[in-house]
Design brief:
The complex is a heterodimer.
Chain A lengths: L6 E3 L12 E5 L9 E4 L2 E2 L1 E4 L10 E6 L7 E8 L5 E9 L9 E7 L6 E2 L2 E10 L6 E6 L3 E4 L1 E4 L3 H5 L10 E7 L7 E12 L3 E4 L3 E6 L7 H17 L6 E9 L6 H16 L3 E6 L5 H8 L3 E3 L8 H18 L1 E7 L4 H9 L4 E5 L5 H9 L6 H13 L2 E4 L2 H7 L8 E3 L15 H11 L6 E6 L8 H11 L6 E8 L3 H12 L6 E5 L5 H6 L2 E4 L8 H8 L4 E4 L4 H4 L6 E4 L4 H12 L3 H19 L1 H18 L4
Parallel strand pairs in A: 10-18, 19-20, 19-22, 20-21, 22-23, 23-24, 24-25, 26-27, 26-29, 27-28, 29-30, 30-31
Antiparallel strand pairs in A: 1-2, 2-6, 3-4, 3-7, 5-6, 7-8, 9-11, 11-15, 12-13, 12-16, 14-15, 16-17, 16-18
Helix pairs in contact in A: 2-5, 3-4, 3-18, 5-6, 6-8, 11-16
Chain B lengths: L1 H124 L9 H25 L2 H5 L1 H9 L4
The chains are: A alpha/beta, B mainly alpha.
Chain lengths: 634, 180
């Protein structure tokens, strides 16, 4: 004979806070160990307590969620011994009027217990504000100013502790704050962090004091560096080579597919085929662009990653590259990317007039910290980095803002901005309607969809995570908006993006597309291009969008603001702020299509003077010719 | 007389010797004078050269002074321009900060409007979605649950009665007979 069990709960008729309790009763059971109460899918803790209004003989209980419940409407159920649902109710969890928003999180670094090493403060942790990752995390470090942290970084540990919280898996944040601290010194500093989301409120952390210690320079390093440099100089003096002033030695970081590499490939192609240059190439790593070099008749030498972890390693690699440079017979050197200071130093020691192209808009401490950690390079190598920036014949930049950033290391006459173009210049700032229709059909978009496109290798710097959050916030107001993010690869960040889209139930709204060598079809299908990177010099993808007649919404950073005028030729928004990004998307989506097209045309007209890649190739050919003919005496 | 003549001849020889010596001395003096005159003439030429060089030096010094003054002016102008650039950069950075603050205010208003629009839309269309029950509904549900609990208890009590246990086989047979 089956026992009949019934249950009842005193369902709250008003929203409850994140930590709350419910009372109820059950009949037909011997005790609370026979039942379970689940709130938002998680089993609650039960204590026996008479419940007012319970029928005679019922077992009363008080149920408390095992942990904070996230904001939202949740289902609460009472389950019998066999898991059968006896009763249930819906309840609304949220911040009660007058209460601050719930903040869950941890500031993991820096800590008071352990000194931070180096001259950059790495501030990291995780945070949930009113159950979601905050829109903005601002870090204030004494002596380092205010820095906006990169948010929505993947976390594996937080969802284990807070499985009901939608953003737990992307609750990580990180900021790097350079401090002017000489080697061998330490300083006690303080910091505080502000977490903010519009419409939710903010949480300000208590001030935390910590010690920053910059390791002392090895007193023997400078002498050793000098000694090894002299060895290299003596070895190079024994080599007599006839140089060809029309032969350029290019030293770069990678032959993989990426913005900096594609820029170089385009340039080399034109130098060789249109301007009669001979080229040789040295790369840190191999990649698919090696085949393109082979087609152009450019010999490629793949070396190791630049070695700068110690003085002997640095001088050893510089010595090897300098010998290679001298024996190459090249009359001039072109070094690519900021991390290429080993190569630039080598080219100078080989006596080659050298131009060094710096695309990155990072400060040196920031760049070093994120690429090599807090203690690399050592002080003696660090000073070579500085002196190479000062000695190299020409520093070339792709944006004026980047040039301004590096001016203190060199002289104004040695720093020059040369913006690059793109082969997509041929589209002339428009996409033909029939092409657009075809591409959209192929991609499965309907004519009424407003297609947003983001292109860039999936990584935290590119801000795809914040873009998904912004899209989640606005898509109910703009159900016609569809977003394609092109550049997915199976990194932890890429996997977190996929999980975020799935968890938000936005698979029909946001598609994550693997890396494409040719993203043209997405640009031809797009109504709006969104650049969400938190740091960029001259984003190639923006140029390509402009060439295809797509209006651009972009973060207001470095070169982006040199390309887009807010409200006239596109939309700019503040960096590392999901609210700002969401508002920019709203502004763009609420702009009538005709006005959007007008803005795209205005953007193309503003940039058309340098979009043709023939222009920058010609300028580079002239620069290299001048260097080869007159040396580096500036 | 002879003696007088001899004495006079001796004196003449002395005078002649003295005359020769004086002539030689005169010649040497004349030579010295000529050398002095020549040297004086040479010195007079050098003075002219020195004067010429001094004039040139003065001229060059004046030009150097003029160039130095021009350089100082240029340096001052360059320093002033650098200072202006620094001021402009600071002004630009301050304007950017102000712009960021203004944008934040604008975005804040827009997002508040968005939230209001969404809340309004949700109120109009999501009537069937799971929301917390109203007080009346909650009371009605609770009363029903209580009544169910009481009935369950009654049922259980009935099941425990003698008549219920005695009629168990009859109920079993009835369950096996299909209902028409």
């Amino acid at each position: 004979m089956t026992t009949v069990r019934t249950a009842g709960v005193l369902a709250p008729t008003r929203p409850v806070s994140h930590l709350f309790e419910l009372r109820g009763w059950v009949t037909g059971v011997g005790g609370l160990d026979e039942i379970a109460v689940r709130i938002a899918g998680e089993e609650a803790n039960l204590t026996a307590e008479p419940c007012p209004g319970a029928p005679p003989g019922a077992v009363g209980f008080r149920a408390l969620p095992a942990t904070w419940a996230p904001s939202g409407v949740h289902r609460m159920v009472v389950e019998g011994p066999d898991g059968e649902v006896l009763t249930g109710c819906a309840l609304t969890v949220g911040t009660l009027p007058g209460e601050p928003p719930l903040w869950l999180g941890e500031l993991e670094a820096p800590t008071a217990e352990r000194a931070s090493i180096g001259h950059v403060v790495l501030v990291c942790g995780w945070a949930l504000l009113d159950s979601r990752a905050p829109s903005l995390v601002e870090v204030h470090v004494e002596g380092g100013g205010t820095v906006r942290a990169r948010t929505r970084l993947p976390r594996k540990d937080v969802p284990k502790e807070f499985p009901a919280f939608a953003d737990a898996a992307i609750s990580g944040f990180e900021a790097r704050v350079p401090i002017d601290l000489p080697p061998g010194e330490e300083r006690t500093l303080s910091l505080w962090v502000r977490y903010r989301t519009e419409g939710v409120g903010e949480h300000v952390s208590p001030k935390r004091t910590f010690v920053l210690r910059h390791p002392p320079a090895d007193p023997e390093d400078a002498e050793l560096a000098e000694e090894l440099a002299e060895d290299t100089a003596r070895a190079l003096a024994r080599v007599e080579v006839r140089t060809d002033p029309r032969h350029v030695l290019v030293l770069t970081h990678s032959l993989g597919v990426g913005g900096g590499q594609l820029w170089l490939q385009e340039l080399l192609g034109r130098l060789v085929t249109e301007h009669g240059w001979r080229a040789s190439l040295v790369s840190e790593t191999d990649g698919p662009l090696r085949a393109d070099c082979a087609e152009l008749g450019i010999p490629v030498h793949v070396t190791t990653h630049y070695r700068h972890s110690s003085v002997p390693a640095y001088e050893g690699h510089v010595g090897e590259l300098a010998r290679f440079a001298k024996c190459s017979g090249a009359g001039v050197a072109l070094v690519n990317t900021l991390g290429g200071f080993v190569a630039a130093d080598a080219a100078k020691r080989a006596g080659l007039p050298t131009a060094w192209v710096i695309h990155e808009s990072f400060t040196l401490p920031d760049f070093a910290h994120q690429n090599w950690g807090p203690e690399i390079p050592p002080a003696a190598v660090w000073s070579r980095w500085h002196s190479t920036l000062a000695e190299v014949d020409l520093l070339l930049f792709v944006a004026d803002a980047t040039r301004e950033m590096f001016l203190p290391y060199s002289k104004p006459e040695r720093c020059r901005t040369v913006r690059y173009g793109t082969p997509m210049w041929k589209f002339g700032g428009r996409t033909r309607p029939e092409i657009r229709r075809q591409v959209r059909n192929l991609m499965g978009f309907s004519p009424d969809d407003v297609v947003l496109v983001n292109i860039g290798v999936a990584e935290s710097r590119k801000g795809q995570g914040p873009l998904i959050s912004a899209m989640e916030r606005i898509h109910r107001a703009h159900p016609e908006a569809r977003l394609d993010i092109v550049g997915l690869h199976p990194s932890p960040y890429g996997l977190a993006l996929e999980q975020t889209v799935r968890r938000a139930g936005l698979q029909d709204v946001i598609r994550l597309i693997p890396i494409q060598r040719d993203p043209t079809p997405w640009l031809q299908a797009a109504d709006l291009f969104v650049n969400s990177s938190d740091i960029e010099s001259l984003p190639r993808s923006i140029l390509e969008a402009v060439c295809c007649g797509v209006p651009v919404a972009a973060t207001d950073v470095f070169g982006a603001r040199e390309m887009i005028t807010d409200g006239e030729t596109g939309w700019l928004f503040e960096t590392n702020d999901v609210d700002a990004l969401a508002a920019a998307l709203l502004r763009a989506l609420e702009t009538p299509p005709a006005r959007r097209r007008e803005m795209a045309r205005a953007a193309h007209a503003a940039l058309s003077g340098w979009l043709d890649p023939a222009g920058y190739a010609r300028e580079y050919a002239q620069i290299l010719t001048d260097l080869a003919d007159h040396g580096g005496s500036r | 007389m002879q003696a007088e003549l001899t004495r006079l001849r001796a004196e003449r020889e002395v005078f002649t010797a003295e005359q020769d010596r004086l002539k030689a001395r005169l010649a040497a003096t004349e030579q010295e004078l000529a050398d002095v005159v020549a040297a004086t003439e040479r010195l007079a030429g050098k003075d002219e050269r020195i004067a010429e060089l001094t004039g040139r030096v003065t001229e060059l010094t004046e030009r150097v002074s003029a160039v130095s003054a021009e350089l100082a002016t240029m340096s001052a102008r360059a320093a002033a321009l650098e200072s202006d650039v620094d001021i402009l950069r600071r002004e630009r950075d301050a304007l950017r900060a102000e712009l960021a603050s203004t944008r934040q205010e604008r975005d804040s208003v827009r997002l508040r409007l968005l939230d209001a629009e969404l809340a309004l839309a949700a109120g109009e269309s999501d009537e069937d979605s799971p929301v917390a029950e109203s007080t009346v509904d909650a009371e009605r549900v609770l009363a029903a649950e209580r009544r169910a609990g009481e009935l369950a208890r009654e049922l259980e009590a009935t099941r425990q009665t003698l008549s219920w246990r005695v009629t168990r086989p009859l109920r079993a047979v009835r369950r096996k007979i299909p209902r028409t």
